[in-house]
Design a protein that fits this description.
GO terms for molecular function: glycosyltransferase activity. The protein is an alpha/beta fold. The chain is built from 14 helices and twelve strands. It has two domains: about 1-135 and about 315-330, Glycogen Phosphorylase B (Rossmann fold, 3-Layer(aba) Sandwich), CATH 3.40.50.2000; about 145-315, Rossmann fold (3-Layer(aba) Sandwich), CATH 3.40.50. About 40% of the residues lie in helices and about 15% in strands.
């Protein structure tokens, strides 16, 4: 029996971490792996997803009881640093803390080869076994539908020929939201929509400043349930992901499943996952983003959307379930 332990579910439920935990449950169901989310149930393996104080203490007790532990490393210092206010000032303390937590795992699981390389570079984790397993997506849910385009425009009272650029994420600097707002300002002929939400009170000053003077062609609907995200991905003309740092970036995989035209920031995590000019386009700075958005939306660059679905299929939850099961079984070998 596996205990999937999550602390602060209400707090993280609408974040990428919250989505990843729901995906684990679906993946384990696919493989008929018995699991519980009740910490009072009897269990053999603790699979822990959070690094908050109660999580650490729970894992420490489990360790003393001789339980096998899989610690899921969803966060690194690098992706914490440019999140919320005081991120830079506290990043070293954060790194020290997460390493203290992760060390309790017999195996550390992290979403990508990129995040695995980062963790392997931490002195505190040099002796730990680390494996990369995608958080995955339910590929059967993300399918094209010709009505999504019409429905998305109707939802926001837009004309049928409106060209839409879509972004998804929290209101944090790391996600590139300041650049997203600036790109909307520079490109007034297109409509920019950003799904996701987090309190601006916790945001860095540049994010708060950007929200004070929004261009008229940008829409912030707030948090979107998965059906709304699917509609938006299926109905947009371009999925734009200007993030500066990720451990995986599930919305990109969802966009691949929906066969979107995709433009991402050229950062190391995408190396080996997506390729510029093959299945996505990449840009390094605001000027390149501006130019490539225009070229993509005016059909002056060839569409690559028929080359994206394979990336998502390789990360289907059925595959993820098998990989997690292999990790659990390896604890007893």
């Amino acid at each position: 029996m596996v205990l999937l332990y999550t602390e602060g579910e209400k707090f993280i439920g609408k974040s990428g971490l919250g989505k990843a935990i729901k995906h684990q449950m679906i993946a384990l169901d696919e493989e008929n792996v018995l699991y519980t989310t009740n910490p009072h149930d009897s269990y053999d393996i603790l699979h822990i997803n959070t690094y908050f104080p109660k999580s650490y203490l729970f894992a420490k007790r489990a360790k003393k009881q001789g339980k096998k532990i899989v610690y899921h490393a969803h966060s690194t210092e690098e992706d914490y640093r440019d999140g919320f206010i005081m991120g830079h000032a506290t990043s070293k303390l954060f790194k020290k803390w997460i390493c203290k937590c992760y060390r309790l795992g017999d195996i550390i699981v992290t979403p990508t080869p990129y995040s695995k390389r980062i963790l392997e570079g931490y002195d505190e984790l040099k002796d730990k076994k680390i494996v990369d397993i995608s958080n995955g997506i339910d590929i059967s849910f993300f399918k094209e539908n010709k009505n999504y385009r019409k429905n998305l425009r109707k939802r926001y009272n837009l004309s049928s020929n409106t060209k839409i650029v879509l972004g998804i994420g929290l209101y944090i600097r790391r996600k590139g939201i300041v650049d997203f707002i600036e790109l909307a300002r520079r490109l007034p002929d297109y409509t920019f929509i950003w799904y996701g939400y987090s309190s601006l009170k916790a945001a860095t000053s540049d994010v708060r400043e950007a929200f004070k003077n929004l261009p008229k062609n940008i829409i912030f609907p707030g948090y979107g349930e998965k059906e709304l995200i699917r509609e938006a991905l299926g109905g947009c003309d371009l999925y734009l992901f200007p993030t500066y740092e990720e451990t995986e970036g599930i919305p990109l995989i969802e966009a691949c499943a929906m066969k979107c035209n995709i433009l991402v920031r050229d950062i190391p995590i995408w190396d080996g996952m997506v390729e510029d000019g093959v299945n996505v386009y990449k840009a390094k700075n605001i000027e390149e983003f501006t130019e490539k958005i225009k070229l993509i939306l005016e059909n002056e660059l060839p569409s690559l959307k028929n080359n994206t679905r394979k990336i998502a299929e390789e990360r289907d939850l059925k595959i993820i379930g098998k990989k997690l099961k292999d990790v659990y079984e390896s604890l007893y070998q």
